[in-house]
Structures
1.
Amino acid sequence: MKYMLLIYSGATTDPACGVEDWMAYDKAVREAGIRVSSESLADLTTATTVTVGPAGERTVTDGPFAETREVLGGYYVIDVPDLDVALDWAARCPGARGGGSVVVRPVADFGL
Amino acid sequence: MDERPVESSVEWVFREERGRLLATLVRRFGDLDLAEDVTSEAIEAALEHWPVEGVPDRPGAWLLTTARRKAVDRLRRDQAYAARLAVLQVEADRAAPAPPADAGGDLPDERLQLFFTCAHPALAAEDRGALTLRCLAGLTTAEVARAFLLPPATMAQRIVRAKKKIREARIPFRVPGADELPERLPGVLQVIYSIFTEGYAASSGARLQRLDLAEEAIRLAWILRRLLPSEREVAGLLALMLLIHARREARTGPDGEIVLLDEQDRDRWDQSMIEEGGDLVLVALTGGPPGPYGVQAAIAALHDEAADVASTDWPQIVALYDVLVALAPSPVVALNRAAALAMRDGPEAGLALLDELADEPRLRGYHPYPTARADLLRRLGRFPEAAAAYREALELAGTEPERAHLRRRLHAVETPGA
């Protein structure tokens, strides 16, 4: 079963949680053979929003900017047997600490 | 059969069997909906056949065989569903291999996994109790709705929502490993205790006590105690509930009005339940550091063993609250500790502690806080302040018996000497 772990950064960045922690976590996910895909996202200041109106007119705006304190910073898609295993991997993720959070969502399966 | 034989009706026997059967079928098929449907069908079949053909030697095995056959029939009719379940089962076995069948019993008891699934932290807190009552206490959705004073349709939606999350987010049916148990068991105990407190002091409505829910919670705790005999907090929770429930007859007057601990007719307390609870307190407090339920049970036992309020061992109760504050600090515990301290050291000392809690956000809107203040102010003869605090409590109190009690107290301080 595939789950997406959406990693939201917190208000503060935990100094105890550095690049080494992320590298170690990434290595652990890969070595466990559960990684389907993962990316980390560039800074929110580089984001652009697109909407298309009813007449097909395109609106492009800078942003969004962080209105709430939580900003999506990256994700993993992992394939594990059940939610408990997914929650364990979420809890190990450095993004779950220091005021951040990891939202675990099952990937919809239309195949079966 | 060593659970409390409260009733011996046919329905009761089936309620007990329903949970066991459901758990076994969930383990076998990995699907709660299918397991529920065929459990009901098997019980209907038993109601039809047994009165005519006699009760089989191994009723549990008969039910299981019947239910399994019905499940297999259904899966034959629905190949896509069967294929999906087969995948589920393979993955579930990958995560947690099936335990060996219990050779001794009629049916292996696999209810523990169901306790942990129903109390899973990924489910909405208000759904956990409902699901536990449905799956483990064998209540129908309508019975669960009535117990929680909710319309059946609302309760049905909640149960459907919870089951959908279990299925689609794939919350597993498994007993947490020994390393996870300290983190997960309190959640299960919390669900049972919240069922109990919901039944004991209904948060709304005219009746103060809804005995059914309190008794269901006790029954669930007995089952859990048998499944986890070495977990002392399970014994502690069961002891706590028995020791509180032992006072049920004395807790309300003839017209349903509330009778507080200090005015209760202690002859009406259930002595055998107090003894049972007392024995379990010893279990809960022996062999390691105490847990919060064990300590609360010990406090309840001290109340239950005292002849009256005056001879209650208040120093010991305050000491136990000190332990509880260290184990599970919360504003409510601090409030109760202040009330006990007022009994040991006098109302002035208790009031000083209560005033320290005045800015506590979690006590805002919690009527026992102004009630406790009002009682101490009354004992100090500060009647106008006491009246103001009773009025504040009246604004917040949920049940009619509680409000009636507060109105009587308010009247007494408004007309002192009358």
Note: The longest strand of chain A covers residues 71-79.
2.
Amino acid sequence: MESPVLRVENFSAHFGDNPVLKDINLSVQHNRVTALMGPSGCGKTTLIRCINRMHELIVDAGVEGSIYLHDEDLYKMNPIMVRKKIGMVFQRPNPFPTMSIYDNVVAGYNLNGIKIKREEKDRIVEESLRKAALWEEVRDRLHRKGSFLSGGQQQRLCIARALAMNPDILLMDEPTSALDPKATAHIEQLISELKNNVTILLVTHNIAQAARVSDFTAFLYLGDLVEFGTTEKLFTVPDDKRTEEYLSGKFG
Amino acid sequence: MIKVSFDSIFKTVLKAVGVLMLLLLAGIFVTLVIDSLPAMKAAGFAFFTGTTWDPVFKEYGSLVFLVGTLLTSFLALAISLPFSLAIAIFLGEYFRSGLVSSFLKSAIELMAGIPSVIFGMWGLFVLVPLVRQVEMQFGVAPYGIGILTASLILAVMIIPYSASISSDVVNLVPADLKEAALSLGATRYEMIKKVVLPSARSGIFAGVLLSLGRAIGETMAVTMVIGNANILPTSIFSPANTMASIIANEFAEATDAVYISCLIEVGLLLMMVTLVISMIGRYIMHRMKI
């Protein structure tokens, strides 16, 4: 097996005196979907916000341990560089309302002041929108603002925006929790297609979603990583009693 | 039954208050129009185009005051904008809470409450000598009083209005948008410039509009430092006069009916200018809405 894209080693995080993550060890494989699941408040969102160094933006937040992106310690890098290499999709679709669809896709370049040629931009926009399965729906309206898009389309626009930066890994924080079932199915199908080219770390509180789309699953409970393994194994013969109880709906 | 009738009484009272406000506005407008009829008859259209205001020779041209008002107000706006934007970003983004921000916030509120005559006095004793120094450097007549001094005073006076509204709207920019920008590798400055300010621009514009309205109507402080010269200004150092300050200055000494009526017509013009500017502002704001 090739070396993992991302390794989390003995990682803990806290808000003030309040521990949120305790000694997490986890690795994310290249071009696979890894799901982080667990009940609300288990620390799964905190974990991915630690990976792109957004956690530290909150006052009183702190971390111990290391996270490596291809053997580079993320906590020894400039956080701005970290965020350029790691894409993120949020719970609620958040395209920039002041920008056109086109500008939303290349927002990463515009925000960072990276100058690229017009043709290059056009290519990135088309490629990213195609990857996010949105191109056919918006190709004639690229220069209009995205406010007429449905929630699912807006979320795909956000996925395109993250993909445009060619991230080493794409973090998705419950990307379907604000969407209706149809749009959810669409995004899930998109995730399955994307994993041929992109490494994805998906946070979900939806057990069935983890089972449907992921190759590996990590189960977090109260800040502990209870179990981590292939989705198949974790869902059929879990090692830990808590995993079994969570999967059978005893809590969470 | 009792509840229903109380509800309907309450509704009627609210309605009455609303209608009363409209009647008041209409009443002021109608009074101004009726009282300026003699002036309209005497001066005609030349009232708006004439540049000589000489009550002794019964010549009433109000263009100088219109120019004075617009010049001082827009100059004040230009001077105050960088400051109020900086305060808005400081309070809305960098220091949203804590001792520094609450201190600054109350200082701004306090500033809005200072009577304008105090601003005028401060302008007369502090700003006028300063401007005089500048004028000597530039080799123009060192009056000290004039358009620039009035604009500076106005700028200080309107900062609280635009700053407090702008910092509120900057504060209201959704956290998800800011996080989206940061997650793409933007620095805080890039995020503010390309996401926060564009999202807040219609609110910032509303604050600017409010402060412009305040600048146009400001009377006392301006009268004290503008020089009260009824001539068309030739540079920003020229002494001049505004619509509000000519009314304040000459109303008490206006003896004949046409003179008084002309001053009232200046008031009518001032009201119309304010109305037109706020209408243009609303239109621009409507076009800017996302």
Note: The CA atoms of residues 97 and 145 of chain A lie 7 Å apart.
